[in-house]
Amino acid sequence: MARPRKQTYTMEMYLGKMKDMDIRSDQDVQRLSGAWNKNMINELIVTVLTDNYIPPVILGEEKNSQIWIIDGLQRSSSLMLFRYGNYKITSSVEEPVIRYRTKAKDENGDVKIDGNGNVVWEDAEFNLKNKTYDRLPEELKKKFNEYQIETVIHEGYEMNQISRFVRRYNNHTAMNAAQKAFTYVDVFAREIRGILGNQFFINSTGYKEKEKRNGSLERVVLESVMCMFHLGNWKKQSKQLGAYLNENATIEEFKILDQNITRLENILTDDLYSIFTSKDTFIWMTLFHKFTNSGLEDSRFAEFLTAFKDGLNLAEVNGMTFYTIDENRSTKDKSVIMDKLDILETLMCDYLDIDKGDLEEVNVLDFVRENVDPDAAQEDVELYKDMLRDFALKVDGNSKLLDRQNQASLIAIIAYACNRDIQIDAWIVDYFNRNDSYIDNQMENFQYMKCDMEDFVKMSDVA
């Protein structure tokens, strides 16, 4: 048989051929139209109106010239539904505002012409929410109708051969919810894939092989960062989870998770990996993140994990146990997550003799706002963190002063100096040379460093 030929139609011509049944969508073995949900239809229409790419539709042509849709039925039927079926774009459309160019009109509604006889054009916007094709401005109707639909046509085949093509082209698996959620976190996608390169995920016995391929582990990373740093804004749905982190997370948060995983790799024995399942890993990551504030050696956390695995998991806290709390509730409900964390924190603190208050981490942004600058933004804090990393290269990198538990006061003192245009390079080096510990209460420690810095500056001015 001849190689398939390529044919490009305008949208108006292509849909017209479907209406006239020159191109038919009801091939014998083809699945029925209507498989797409409204969100999928919304995004397809936005793709057309923004002149973005749609993959070619695959067609099969019989010897009698009848053409059948082989692959692209859902796209074709969705476009028909919008153009001729009065489909209304829903309010959930992701990017509803379409920008386009239109002819400027004067007060009488006539097209403006400049002094050279040229039409005056201007920018315009249109919100697609709850709109049908008939409610589009004429410019967007024209853009829709003139969109170029690419097709590939297999010519001269019998119906049974076309059926074989339908089977071949549709032999694939669509993205699941977790895989689709990953597409919404493109800002951090490379960091996430880097984290999944840790031996923790490669060799862990807690994950099924298919979970390492179907997007489950990507979701584990997203849930871990969300639970560790943004639990108050917990998102249950995968898409919302990815979109929220893309907008609100920071590289530093993913780096902290990566560092914590490396620390876990150094203490976990083979039998303990089974605790870290795709369902509960983010809970354990959050617990370990809290544990790092305790000041205890990481090996103590492994001791707790062993005790938990050997029977402590059956212990009740407020009448609940860790593995039974979600029997009749969704495992992704915020209330379930809070209860699970409370159970694990209580068991761990009792077993390791830790005060629960010692596990709480100071919110650096809130700390800076409270003690230095009420108008500080997260971008400012990220700048101060970068400055702290630069300062750390000039001092003893193993100094206890660089402990994460002391980050809030260190970043706040840098913010204080920046806001008052104080050069602190020399003071930082001098302070680290004179001190090897800090006050646990970060506000007190900040005040102590502020006084020390001001004294240093005064002495330098006198000198």
Explain what you see.
The chain has 19 helices and seven strands. Helix 13 crosses helix 14 (334-352). The chain folds into three domains: 5-169, no CATH class; 177-359, no CATH class; 364-462, no CATH class. A hairpin with a 5-residue loop joins strand 3 and strand 4 (67-71). The mean pLDDT is 89. It starts with a strand and ends with a helix. It has a five-stranded mixed β-sheet with strand order 1-7-3-4-2. A two-stranded antiparallel sheet has the order 5-6. It has 463 residues and is of the alpha/beta class.
How far apart are the first and last residues' alpha carbons, in Å? 93 Å
Q: Which range best describes the helical content: under 10%, 10-25%, 25-40%, 40-55%, 55-70% or over 70%?
A: 40-55%
Unreliable runs:
none
- Provide the succession of SSEs: EHEHEEHEEHEHHHHHHHHHHHHHHH
Q: Largest sheet, order of strands side by side?
A: 1-7-3-4-2
What does the radius of gyration come to? 30 Å
What percent of residues are in strands? 5-15%
Instruction: Write down how many β-strands occur, each being a DSSP E stretch of 2 or more residues.
Output: 7
Shape, principal axes of CA atoms: globular
Please give the count of helices: 19
Q: Structural class per helix/strand content?
A: alpha/beta
Largest sheet: 5 strands, mixed
Mean pLDDT: 89
Number of domains: 3
